[in-house]
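Incident review: delayed structure delivery

Summary: a single-chain prediction request sat in the queue longer than the usual turnaround. Root cause was a stuck worker, restarted by the on-call engineer. No data loss occurred. The affected request and its eventual output are reproduced below so the record is complete for anyone auditing the incident later.

Affected input:
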Amino acid sequence: MATTPPPTELWVLLKSNDSAVVNQAVLVSTQDCRFVTHFIKAIKKELPNKLGHVDSDNITLHLTKDGPALEPDDALPAQNTKQTALVVTVPPSAPTLVSMAYGKADMPFISESTEVQEDQEVWENIPVDESIAPCAEFVELFKKNCSVFEFETEASRRTVIDLFLREIVSQFPAFQVICEYHMTHVNEVKKRRLNGRCDYTICHRGYRHLPHLVVIEAKVTNKETMLQCIGECASIHYRRKHAGMPNCCVYGIHSTGSVWKFVFVSQEGVVYVSGEKHLDVNHYVEEGFNLIYRLVHYVIHQSFLNSPRTTPNVSTTNLLQ
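Output delivered after worker restart:
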């Protein structure tokens, strides 16, 4: 009985892992292909743009779309047609990491990346301790600052923020201000990354490698997005939570020097944002000046109470609070 010669070409169809993509069947030469394993390598060469990145061992060949995979040492199937093309399958590609700068990310991206709540709440009734008052020396420094600078640039507006941070953080010797702190947040599960530079952060002195406690962003105008500040706070919350720290609360300050907003990320990941608080940077106005002083003091004091291990002589384990 005569034997059927092996086919010189076979139709194959690459099965798409994307339902919106429809591939067309193509003819692939079977030259030098004795077994299925040889033919898979020939298919890979025929479709370099679609299969060039896939290892041959991860490609399977099927008689039908839902049929079992042919074994590598199986003989080549009989001659087929375009309508009965062999089906080529590859495992779905691993999702790629999507990266965004803190200043560009929207709230859905921040929420997915950091696991905080997407909807923001209004932070009302922030406790203001009337007994907290700036010293006379600090008031004079502020007045001198008002008389020296013109406040049209971020650099000049930062002088106001610097004054408040220097005066208040110095009351908490365990804390240190880090300027231009590079932050990178990666969520491997969600394949999301946030990165950028934070204008200021506050951390335990001598422990900048641990999750920081307060984020401060200086902006030229109040029209600039607050999402950068929120994203940085949310990233620290995520890091504290996944480090197993009992207290994951994080505070943030967003300021133009004259307009201040305050951010709080709760233990549960709820994001609270205050209304605008105003400070006259050109003249000393006691009421607004004292309010900003007390609010900044409150944020830093609460961070100290939430993470009270204060001396570099204690262990890193004890600092994980």
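Verification: The longest helix spans residues 286-306.
Action items: add queue-age alerting; document worker restart procedure.
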